[in-house]
Automatic annotation (TrEMBL):
This is DNA ligase. Belongs to the ATP-dependent DNA ligase family. It catalyses: ATP + (deoxyribonucleotide)n-3'-hydroxyl + 5'-phospho-(deoxyribonucleotide)m = (deoxyribonucleotide)n+m + AMP + diphosphate. Residues 499-518 are annotated as: Disordered. Residues 284-408 form the ATP-dependent DNA ligase family profile domain. It holds the Pfam family DNA_ligase_A_N. Keywords: ATP-binding, Cell cycle, Cell division, DNA damage, DNA recombination, DNA repair, DNA replication, Ligase, Magnesium, Metal-binding, Nucleotide-binding. GO terms for molecular function: DNA ligase (ATP) activity. Its EC number is 6.5.1.1. Gene3D superfamilies: DNA ligase, ATP-dependent, N-terminal domain (1.10.3260.10), DNA ligase/mRNA capping enzyme (3.30.470.30), Nucleic acid-binding proteins (2.40.50.140). NCBIfam families: dnl1 (TIGR00574), PRK03180.1 (NF002868).
Length: 518
């Protein structure tokens, strides 16, 4: 298969808003790629999801900043491209940088202009978007003639869309069914959609729901097999060695095999939650505050897999095995008023909100299906830092005012991110010091006092709302944005998209609330 066919499909997917049309275009391509053998197919599935097959190529933004003249005709094949990146990834030792540069010049010199743009996006990660994964899963299911839920489930269990997609296309239902929950192997976590208030969330789900305390710590998944315990994060990184308290708690539970989902939290002496940064720094260093695990789901217990069991049943097992002091406080109700009252109490206790959950739903990775709905009182967005301004006065010598962008999910968007505003509010001295170093490392170029950076750092912003704006290209600006924390557990493709932002609803244009600099 030629690279041009993948580039063309990718353009069709970006240009339509229709989910059906996106899946159809991807399926058409996957159907053709299937005939090319497993290596080619794996490459196509991976690239359609916006990712290279190599974990590291030693190539970054800088390495593809200056490209040779594009070729007139697209001639590259997928296997040639893959082989070129394999060779790049294998380069090491003295002189490797020069050899890498010449390999890049060779590869990109054989690509036409559209292919060059696309390959550059692939290398820098700009093509990656969380939503692409489920589209590729659905397309693979369509070609294989399998229910989309089966492929999604395999991806959750394998922790990889590429593995699940290729298996569906080459081995069919039988091969797919071999992906089972294995104690000791982490699965992709279930995520939540959001609602403006608790009543809306309860009404949307209908019927009795679990209203769970939303604990502001670090997502953990714990696998126990006898005395073996493994703790992983939302991104499936192993943090077992850093969280001995969690290991000890799980070892004390009355079950031989166990998979639990929960949140690890730093608590002060009064049992109130401490700032997220305190908890987060604990996975980075292994000292500091005491960490307490709180579990809210059970996926396996003593030989019984519970992934497909309704939440009601999973919670029964959880309540039986885990003592109350290690569970997220919860109310089961179908009454929105009772749910609102419970949520108000949760906020008074210092937690960030609630997650309202459908008691009849199974456990499914990702955000689709919306069986979990989070409700937080202030709006928060996960945005990407596009540039930073040098501070003045007390902040001289520090990178301060952040330029914030959302993923631009509009068809034909001119750039991957669209700027929504700036803020320097909420930044402590510690954060200023940290971000100065971080953004200097990400610097691409400087214009006046504005340092442009590679769009890789996600930051969680609280805001009062949106206002319409003629100043910013998305047509809206953030109102009273302030920094809550840096999200090192999220990549830029998991940041909020303009579509998510607009759902907050904009008020008419008002005076600019964030002064242009500090
Ligand atoms: N009781 C709970 N049930 C489910 N998730 C919870 C609970 N308490 C805290 N959480 C956290 O909330 C997250 C669910 O929200 P979401 O899927 O939107 O992830 P997120 O983008 O990391 O959310 P946020 O930034 O709001 O924490 C989970 O990943 C988990 O870390």
């Amino acid at each position: 298969m030629r690279l041009a066919e993948v580039v063309a499909t990718s353009a069709v997917v970006a240009a339509t808003r229709s989910r059906l049309a996106k899946v159809a275009a991807l399926a058409d391509l996957l159907g053709r790629a299937r005939d090319g053998g497993e290596d080619e197919l794996t490459t196509v599935v991976s690239y359609l999801g916006g990712a290279l097959r190599q974990r590291r190529t030693g190539l970054g933004w800088r390495g593809v900043a200056d490209l040779p003249e594009p070729a007139d005709e697209p001639t590259l094949t997928m296997l040639e491209v893959h082989a070129a990146f394999e060779a790049l990834a294998a380069e090491q030792g003295p002189g490797s940088q020069a050899r890498r540069a010449s390999a890049v010049a060779d590869l990109f010199g054989r690509a036409d202009a559209a292919e060059q743009r696309w390959l550059r996006g692939l290398v820098t990660g700009e093509l990656r978007q969380g939503a692409l994964d489920t589209l590729v899963q659905d397309a693979a299911a369509k070609v294989a003639g399998l229910p989309p839920a089966d492929v999604r489930r395999a991806a959750m269990l394998a922790g990889s869309t590429v593995t699940a997609g290729v298996t569906a296309l080459t081995g069919g239902a039988e091969a797919l069914a071999r992906f089972v929950l294995t104690v000791g192997r982490p699965v992709l976590p279930m995520l939540a959609s959001s609602a403006g208030d608790v009543t809306e969330a309860v009404t949307r789900l209908g019927g009795p729901v679990a209203v769970d305390t939303k604990l502001d710590g670090i997502r953990i998944q714990v696998h126990r097999n006898g005395s073996e315990v493994v703790v992983t994060t939302r991104t499936l990184d192993d943090v077992t060695a850093r969280l001995p308290e969690v290991v000890a708690v799980v070892r004390s539970l009355p079950a031989e095999t166990l998979v639990l989902d929960g949140e690890a939290l730093a608590l002060d002496e009064q049992g109130r939650p401490r700032a997220f940064q305190d908890t987060a720094s604990r996975t980075a260093q292994s000292h500091g505050a005491t960490i307490t695990p709180f579990f809210f789901d059970c996926l396996h217990a003593d030989g019984t897999d519970l992934l497909d069991a309704p939440l009601r049943e999973r919670l029964e097992v959880l309540d039986r095995l885990v003592p109350e002091r290690h569970r997220a406080p919860r109310l089961v109700t179908d009454d929105p008023v009772a749910a609102e009252e419970f949520a108000a109490g949760v906020l008074r206790a210092g937690h960030e909100g609630v997650v309202v959950k459908d008691l009849a739903a199974g456990y499914a990775a990702g955000r689709r299906g919306a069986a979990w709905i989070k409700v937080k009182p202030v709006h928060t967005l996960d945005l990407v830092v596009l540039a930073v301004e040098w501070g003045s006065g007390r902040r001289r010598g520090k990178l301060s005012n952040l330029h914030l962008g959302a993923r631009d999910d509009r068809p034909g968007a001119p750039a991957p991110f669209v700027m929504l505003g700036k803020t320097f509010k909420g930044l402590t001295d510690e954060l200023l010091a940290w971000q100065t170093e971080r953004f200097l490392a990400l610097r691409t170029h400087q214009e006046g006092h504005v340092v442009h950076v590679r769009p890789e750092q996600v930051v969680e912003i609280a805001l009062d709302g949106l206002q319409r704006s003629t100043r910013y290209p998305g047509g809206v600006a953030l109102r009273f944005a302030r920094v809550l924390r840096y999200r090192d557990d999220k990549t830029a493709d998991e940041a909020d998209a303009l579509g998510d932002v607009l759902r907050l609803g904009a008020t008419p244009e008002g005076p600019e609330d964030t002064p242009p600099g500090d």
